[in-house]
Amino acid sequence: GVKPYACSMCDMRFFQRYHLARHSLTHTVKPYACSMCDMRFFQRYHLARHSLTHT
């Protein structure tokens, strides 16, 4: 399948413009911060998965 929507910050490509817009937030907005280190995440799930590295 053709993925016409390309991210200007990385090599990711998408089928729909909405998916590109959602992905673009990963390069700018990271509201979920780890309380144990300086890492920040775009999705709460990624923070939860990362938190396991501290246990």
From TrEMBL:
State the GO CC annotations.
Answer: nucleus
| Domain called C2H2-type: residue spans | 5-28, 32-55
Q: Would I find Nucleus among this entry's keywords?
A: yes
Q: Where in the cell is it found?
A: Nucleus
Entry's family note = Belongs to the krueppel C2H2-type zinc-finger protein family.
Keywords from the named record: Metal-binding, Nucleus, Repeat, Transcription, Transcription regulation, Zinc, Zinc-finger
InterPro entries, sorted: Znf_C2H2_sf (IPR036236), Znf_C2H2_type (IPR013087)
Report the PANTHER family cross-referenced here: EARLY GROWTH RESPONSE 4-RELATED, KRUEPPEL-LIKE TRANSCRIPTION FACTOR
* A Pfam family reported for this protein in Swiss-Prot or TrEMBL: zf-C2H2
Q: Tell whether Zinc is among the UniProt keywords.
A: yes
Which Gene Ontology molecular function entries are recorded, alphabetically? DNA-binding transcription factor activity, RNA polymerase II-specific; RNA polymerase II cis-regulatory region sequence-specific DNA binding; zinc ion binding
Q: Could you identify this protein by its name?
A: Zinc finger protein 740a
Organism (species): Amphilophus citrinellus (Midas cichlid)
